Amino acid sequence: MSSDVPPVPVLSRSDGQGSSPVDPASYREARRLHPLTLVQRLVVSLPALFFLLLPFLRHPDRDAWINLVIAIIYGVIALPWIVLYYHRFRYRITPRELIIESGVLTRKHRNIPIERIQSIEIEQRLLARLLGLAKVKVQTAGSAATEGVLEYVSVPEAHAIRRIVRVYQQHRTDAPEAAAGPPATTPETGEATPETTGLSLSLRRVLLSGAFRFSLLYIAVAFSLLQYFDPDPEAIALWLSRGALRPLITRAADAPWLTAFLFALLAALLSWLTGIAVNLGKYYGFRLWYEPGKLHKRHGLLTVSENTIPFRKVQALILRTNPLMQRFGWWELKLQTMGFDPREQGYQVAAPFARLDEIEAVARPMLPFHLPETFRSVSPLHARRVFVRWTLALLLLSAGTALFWTPAWWSLTALPLVGLYAWLAFRRHGYVFTGERLFVRRGVLRHHVWVLPVEKFQVFYLTASLFQRRLGLCSVYVDTAGVAGFAAPVIHDLPAGEAEALLETLYARFQAHYAGAEPPGAEAGVEAIRSRSEQSPR
Amino acid sequence: MHPLDRAVLNVWRLKLGMVAGVATLGTLAYEVLNLFDGDLPLPFGLTTALVLAAGLALCLIVPPLRYRFWRYALRPEELYLERGLFNRVRTIVPLRRIQHLDVSQDVIEREFGLGRLVVHTAGARSSEIVLPGLRYEEAEKLRDAMKRYILEEDVV
Predict the structure, then answer these.
(1) CB contacts, 8 Å: A175 with chain B
(2) Which residues, 6 or more positions from B118, have their beta carbon under 8 angstroms from its beta carbon?
(3) In angstroms, how far is the first alpha carbon of chain B from the final one?
(4) Which residues contact A31 (CB under 8 A, 6 or more apart)?
(5) Which residues of A touch B145 (CB under 8 A)?
(6) ipTM value for the complex
(7) Each residue's pLDDT tens digit, A17-43
(8) pTM (predicted TM-score)
């Protein structure tokens, strides 16, 4: 890899940090952490030791000796660990990558390509500051975790690392986009077209949207109120059995079914009202507008939240609805985003309550799509698998409960409902691949439609469980960047042949999207390695 | 398509064996502690023997099966993995999607000269894709080949 390394950039003091010039070449050799790291780590481990010793220090008697032994064992393990960790830790920066070698028992050799580095954070806690040390955290777009941590290096070294990486990054990438978002910039990330002026929701719409949502928040509120007032249950029972409520209680005892029904009704009403209130608090005055390459939104009654989302951070769209909302043609639009900052990763509501054409208009500047009329359905065996799964769950549950309470067997009368659910699960599950977008829809009570653009595909999966294999079925899943949500756009239970063909099509389309950007020579390199590994003994 | 290195069988056997050993010791401790209470469901030692036998059987049966279904290939544009005894999974990792790469080795793997390649992507559910059971040098070779590709990819 020596031939195509760019020349060592000359770093001068002119780029802001104001410290002495740095020689990047010296960072190409393996470097150690600052020796004071040992002191820092030792001091940090002391409180644990102190707590272990605390009983012994207070009453140095027979029972406390065990703590002394534990403390000694801790010392015998922890101290060499600190030294070994320091001893094994190496890092270096080449013009192409940051390399970190670490690990006491499990040795790890990590290569982070320079252009994949999103941010370098320098952190100094109190003790580290006293020792003149700094912790360097290197983030890539991979996960919410920090991918590279150097703890600790000296403060000038921390700044030098940051500068060297920046200079190398500028060297490598003339296009600013390359250093930015992890996946490619889409051709659609243009300006907002005039007809898409955004979206604002009237108060009436916000209230209406709440009416379709139920919230169980009131239960939490009731519980926290109970905790706050901490009432005496006996006093309440006494008050209830003595007071004016007595006739009501006897009536309730006379008609248990009616009481249960009324209670359920009350609970539903409460959760409905809470849903409206919560929704109002969250989405009051919802407004969404565009700037070139960006989306802004602002909403909230008491806490007003404002958000800016660059289009290129949007990885996928998620449309959500429930049977009732869908009946009246209402949808929610969520964006799956991925950013420099772990805090920006996740899901953003772009339209809490809108018609499908409004949602398509909102999405047009960043990820245009048109929801297909019909979806390809999965194998009908999907219904059977869902039915079997839920029936087994129901059987287990009722059998378990029946050990204590025999009437639990009556819950098996719900089996026709399970059948209906399974049939609906099959009917609602489907996919469409248009060549540009993969649409996956799923869900009975919570209906999801995922819109996955080809240029944001990350990793492709084809899975078949033991039971699926018996029925000749497979599931297909295409991963996109972001945070793992509760539900994923897995296409369940396709006939094996169809699944394989779909996976091939998806991957071929993905490759075609990037075709033309192939660097010459890379293939040859891989081939060479492959032939070498082919020769190696197994 | 390459199989894993056969030495990984021993690594898996050892790791499973350690779990089995802990389970056996736990059962034994339970039996000894309850020996004189007279409420052991089975004659003394039998439960421990059963747990031990089950553990040994697992150690013998599971690793070869797991080994049989592991396959990998580094192709010009993707890393392809196939694995899974019960849940069979095929994975295509496009090399251009790789964020960074680890080669790591734990104590047991070190004894057998093995290492594992860990591929990190930005995918929500694929932030770590692990290819175990490679000779350490082979893992490094694979990493270098993949690294070469992702680094030459300018448009990320």
Answers:
(1) 154-155
(2) B101, B102, B103, B104, B128, B129, B130, B131
(3) 28
(4) A90, A91, A92
(5) 525-526, 529-530
(6) 0.90
(7) 444 567 888 888 889 999 998 988 888
(8) 0.79
